[in-house]
Design the sequence.
């Protein structure tokens, strides 16, 4: 019974909105995006990933704000493919015309195999 109550409490916390989690929770996504961008820069993503796909550098909050979901999805998948290749696994980068479900399925399948 205790375990069920604990799991229920965890679920309730995960379903809380930003207001219930504290004043800084609404900005947590922006902090995560800045950390992600710093890590990508350390891996030299601008030279190795962006130039290969002829893309412009990401802003500090590119994935934190939904501006153009199709473009954001493609760039996310292209970066994921680049990171998988960088980890030593051959992975074909996605094309903009590829089926999004197939692309994300391939990315997730490859990540599960790590």
Sequence:
């Amino acid at each position: 019974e205790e375990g069920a109550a604990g799991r229920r409490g965890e679920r309730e916390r995960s379903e809380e909105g930003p207001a219930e989690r504290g004043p800084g929770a609404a900005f947590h996504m922006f902090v995560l995006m800045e950390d992600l961008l710093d890590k990508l820069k350390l891996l030299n993503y601008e030279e190795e990933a962006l130039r290969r796909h002829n893309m412009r550098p990401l802003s500090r909050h590119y994935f934190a704000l939904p501006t153009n979901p199709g473009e954001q999805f493609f760039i996310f998948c292209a970066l994921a493919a680049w990171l998988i290749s960088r980890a030593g696994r051959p992975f074909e980068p996605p094309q903009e015309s590829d089926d999004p479900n197939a692309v994300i399925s391939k990315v997730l399948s490859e990540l599960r195999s790590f």
Remarks:
- Residues 25-112 form one domain.
